[in-house]
Amino acid sequence: MNLKQELQQLNDRLDKYRRKLDAAEKRGDQAVILQFKQEINAVTKQITHVKQQQSRQLNKRGTEVSELAFSRALTKAEQADMGKLKRSVKGLIVVHPMTALGRQMGLTQVTGYAPKAF
Hints:
Layout: H1 3-27, H2 30-66, E1 70-73, H3 76-80, H4 82-88, E2 93-95, H5 100-105, E3 111-114
Antiparallel strand pairs: 1-3, 2-3
Helix pairs in contact: 1-2
């Protein structure tokens, strides 16, 4: 399971526990309230861990891409025919500024990274 799916499942569990906690508080059931507070704390800790893992992976990927020897912004014509561009440039990695990687790298336009000039 990838981190995105795991994070979604943890958030779903957290939401479920919060709803059950609200119901237990309305009933005044102290034992159940204590149990769900512990569950919420455990799931919150897991969510924090998964988010940190995602951040580390994203930073690692960003450094790998930015360490490639050549980079430049892509023209509109190159963006329009991306297949042709990728076939002509060996090892090209295209990063869009609206993706998580692009935001992390601070890009403002679509940029291509490659081991050699293109």
